[in-house]
Amino acid sequence: MSTQTEPESETEIEESEAAATETESAVESPGDRRRREKGERAVEEEAKRKEAEETLDEEDTVQIKVFRYDPEVEGKQEPRFDDFHVPFFKGMTVLDALIYARDTYDSSLTFRHSCRQAVCGSDALFINGSQRLACQTQIADLDSETVRVEPLPHQDVVKDLVVDMEHFYDQMDSVEPYFDADELPDGDETQRQTPENREKVKMSTRCIWCGACMSSCNIAADDNQYLGPAAINMAYRFAMDEREGEIRKEDRIKIIEQEHGVWRCQTQFSCTEVCPKDIPLTEHIQELKREAVKSNLKFW
Amino acid sequence: MSHSYDRGFIEDFGRWREFSAGMWAWIFHKFTGWVLIGYLFTHIAVLSTATASDPAVYTDTLQGLEALVIVRFLEVGLLAVAVFHILNGVRLLFVDLGVGLEAQDRSFYASLVLTGAITVASVPTFVGGVLA
């Protein structure tokens, strides 16, 4: 572009077109051509985007109110809410809106996300007063003018929408969430599970460790030692697995029947309500309570 | 972690506008339970002191209490509280047995409606003598 002598008032598009005609005269490799075309397209799209953004009216934008907090920057230590007006498109999720706000308006906006399809469980947020996965929540479904996005309650906020998950992971680990059979089959033999048993534990295996249930639970908020719905669900998943054997199951029941285990649950159904994978958490906790009673009640 | 922001009381308690059915059931059950315990102790205290001396004192005390309009209304409230606690208690028994967990919100609404109906139906009995 150094050879160009065009007036400064030229727009970006014209500039790149001029650049294009210039390079065409020289011998152009396919790679150069592709890069040139890509560059042209990018400029075109950017112009389109700008135009579309300027002509937006109230109907096509959505306002998101995002919790902001940064302990490391002076002046941001006081928590506040930032408003972002984001162009709406059909099928837009809360995560899409957050990504747009971060990429377009404020690159310091911090939140966790990875797979964007409700598999990784990293973007559980407090959206309009309920724990939801941002990637799974359609803005159109929220039925409100503004979308209020906050970090998960009952967890320490590290920055903006990022919370400290350490305690949650500790609770998950404390129920020993791994398969550990009493006896393994010899040699190459497969360890089979009956279809009925698989069906029984099916829902509990869906947990993605997002922490929404733990955050929604009042009891877990008050009692830091309480295992929490997710951890108890993990215990259920393995305790109910018939392949593990009776001895292991007894050990697992011993873990969950402790003072801060299943008996802390007061059946608020908050966890079942918010679980993005629709795991019937309360049902599993109640079943483990009955198992715990059964293992302790002996009439002989 | 060196820095973290404590969101305070609202965070532990949540926002009541956003509570779901199960949460309301839990709160009402706690509340009615405490009211019933409070009533139980007052009940025992009043009866034990009123019957301590002789039957005439007992009759006087009760008639004096029943003559107060506020007591009549409090009795309606007590019935409402007791009925809800009983009905929701039955609901919780079913929850403990793992029966009908999918219908837990509807059974809560049902117990609310039934409580309302029984309370309204009881008003003539409790308040009738005073206002009529």
Task: Describe the 3D structure.
- The complex is a heterodimer of chains A (300) and B (132).
- By secondary structure, chain A is an alpha+beta fold.
- Chain A folds into two domains: 58-163, Roll (Ubiquitin-like (UB roll)), CATH 3.10.20.30; 166-296, Alpha-helical ferredoxin (Fumarate Reductase Iron-sulfur Protein, Chain B, domain 2, Orthogonal Bundle), CATH 1.10.1060.
- Helix content of chain A is 40%, strand content 11%.
- Chain A has eleven helices and seven strands.
- A five-stranded mixed beta sheet of chain A has the order 2-1-5-3-4. Chain A has a two-stranded antiparallel sheet with strand order 6-7.
- The longest helix of chain A is centred in the first third of the chain and has 25 residues, at 30-54.
- The termini of chain A are far apart.
- Residues 5-11 of chain A have low confidence and may be disordered.
- Chain B is mostly helical and 132 residues long.
- Chain B has a single domain, classed as Up-down Bundle (3 helical TM bundles of succinate and fumarate reductases), CATH 1.20.1300.
- Helix content of chain B is 78%, strand content 0%.
- Chain B has helices spanning 9-13, 21-50, 55-66, 69-96, 104-131.
- The radius of gyration of chain B is 20 Å and the shape is elongated.
- The N and C termini of chain B lie far apart (67 Å).
- The model of chain B has no long low-confidence stretch (mean pLDDT 85).
- The interface between A and B is medium-sized, with 30 and 28 residues.
